[in-house]
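Module 6 notes. Inverse folding takes a fixed backbone as the condition and produces residue identities as the prediction. Think of it as a translation problem where the source language is geometry and the target language is the twenty amino acids. Below is one complete input and output pair. Work through it position by position during the lab.
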């Protein structure tokens, strides 16, 4: 009987040790799950805050974008009224100018910016037909404003004389 008692006592001690280990493991798992829920809640609040900030920033960018295009359109219209030319940007270095007095859409001027930043008149069918007096302002004085004024004057004369 003593032997049986000792075996039984040893088995019982091992069982309670195993039960306490299991209980500690369960408590640790429960604590880890509780901490995970807290972290998820904190992150959910942070995510909502960031989403709200992103939405506000997106709205601001959209509003500024709309204002920019409205101002740009107004600027283009004002430049047309002031200069008599509609200016279209082609690529990053070319500008197409069409006079309000041009007889056809093909009667345009084309300028290109070189690597030093200087604008140069490109050859177009319209430029080939310009009088040498008109080109004089560009070739002699290197004056694009003077050249454009002369082109405008010549086109206006052609429309009023005809």
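Target side of the pair, the amino acids:
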């Amino acid at each position: 009987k003593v032997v049986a008692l000792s075996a039984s006592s040893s088995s019982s001690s091992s069982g309670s040790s195993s039960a306490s280990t299991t209980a500690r493991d369960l408590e640790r798992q429960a604590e880890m799950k509780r901490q995970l829920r807290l972290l998820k809640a904190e992150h959910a609040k942070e995510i909502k805050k960031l989403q709200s900030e992103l939405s506000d920033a997106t709205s601001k960018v959209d509003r500024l974008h709309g204002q920019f295009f409205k101002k740009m359109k107004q600027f283009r219209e004002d430049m047309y009224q002031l200069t008599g030319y509609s200016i279209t940007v082609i690529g990053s270095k070319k500008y197409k100018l069409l006079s309000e007095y041009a007889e056809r859409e093909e009667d345009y001027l084309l300028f290109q910016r070189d690597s030093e930043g200087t604008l140069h008149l490109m050859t177009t069918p319209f430029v080939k037909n310009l009088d040498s007096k008109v080109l004089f302002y560009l070739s002699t004085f290197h004056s694009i404003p003077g050249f454009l004024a002369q082109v405008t004057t010549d086109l206006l004369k052609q429309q009023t004389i005809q």
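Reference fact for the lab report: The helical segments are 2-83, 125-128, 132-139, 144-161.
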